[in-house]
Amino acid sequence: MFNSLTDRLTSTFRNLKGKGRLSEADIDATAREIRRALLDADVAVPAVRDFISHVKERALGAEVSEALNPGQQVVKIVNSELERILGGETRRLTLAKTPPTVIMLVGLQGAGKTTLAGKLSKHLKDQGHTPMLVAADLQRPNAVRQLEINGERAGVPVFAPHPGVSSEAEAPTGDPVQVSRDGIAEATRKQHDIVIVDTAGRTGVDAELMQQASDIRAAINPDEVLFVIDAMIGQDAVATAQAFNEGVGFTGVVLSKLDGDARGGAALSVVNVTGKPIMFASTGEQLNDFEVFHPDRMASRILD
Ligand code: GDP
């Protein structure tokens, strides 16, 4: 992830090294190179525009520093703008005043929701919470079973819509809205402090998927709706994020498959385009391949 962007930025900065002071022409040339590097990394055009205008404004107005040469000053500006475009401050989960806190997961099929559900539940359990998972993805035949397996690995109970699975509630129907409601009722009864509801995805954004997710959201009024996006899908990430933001609405983003060789565009566009923070990152298929997303650390990683 970010390898090619990192290389490109490094070589851009190398060209500035040793300059006594930066002329406007130097700054323009640098901005052009950064723009090309970001576009090649699949960063969305509005995010690139925003980024470049901030960098230029700050570079032109930068005070002469005794400690830093002009090249270092530009690196510092780019670092802080990367941090800003990645969301600024680390955003933590909002917990309900009266438990359980309800977290709903949405996204396309294959985005990594079910995998993330297991990882997030393990992370929360490690922090001393008592999470429960709810299998409301009734679209994909295997999704319920897969969530049960992930729950078992995480040591977290799963509420699933068929008899015989860790549920004392009445056998739920095949209606995802009802399953979500029943799951939350069960979690409340059993005093779990967090419920994670896994919902169905489709291969492409469609009206039916949006309606279903939107109905579930209206029925369960979650404290957080996390949109899980595959970082590997490049430019499509932005359009998908916008569709979900308008169709269901979400409170935070989870970037999955950050271990792949994605060019990083999704990470660098999604906050700018949706106005929603990236909260977690999924970095592999194993339960522990999971990170709380820290914009400052990610910015430093890009400029490594
Ligand atoms: P869902 O349809 O959104 O629930 O997606 P799944 O959780 O079933 O994930 C789809 C595929 O992506 C599975 O084969 C997962 O093992 C894989 N996967 C999920 N998250 C990651 C990740 O962070 N890195 C990698 N390399 N694979 C992942």
UniProtKB/TrEMBL annotation:
Q: How does it assemble?
A: Part of the signal recognition particle protein translocation system, which is composed of SRP and FtsY.
Protein name as it appears in the record: Signal recognition particle protein
Specify where it is mainly localized: cytoplasm
Reading the lineage from the top rank, the first entry is Bacteria
Identify the coding gene: ffh
Record function comment? Involved in targeting and insertion of nascent membrane proteins into the cytoplasmic membrane. Binds to the hydrophobic signal sequence of the ribosome-nascent chain (RNC) as it emerges from the ribosomes. The SRP-RNC complex is then targeted to the cytoplasmic membrane where it interacts with the SRP receptor FtsY.
Provide the SRP54-type proteins GTP-binding domain boundaries.
277-290
- This enzyme's EC code(s): 3.6.5.4
Q: Where in the cell is it found?
A: Cytoplasm
Q: Which UniProt keywords are listed? A: Cytoplasm, GTP-binding, Hydrolase, Nucleotide-binding, Ribonucleoprotein, RNA-binding, Signal recognition particle
Q: What protein family does this chain belong to? A: Belongs to the GTP-binding SRP family. SRP54 subfamily.
Entry comment, domain topic: Composed of three domains: the N-terminal N domain, which is responsible for interactions with the ribosome, the central G domain, which binds GTP, and the C-terminal M domain, which binds the RNA and the signal sequence of the RNC.
Tell me the organism. Citricoccus muralis
Annotated residues for binding of GTP: 107-114, 198-202, 256-259
Identify the segment of the full-length protein shown. 1 to 304 of 529
Enzymatic reactions: GTP + H2O = GDP + phosphate + H(+)
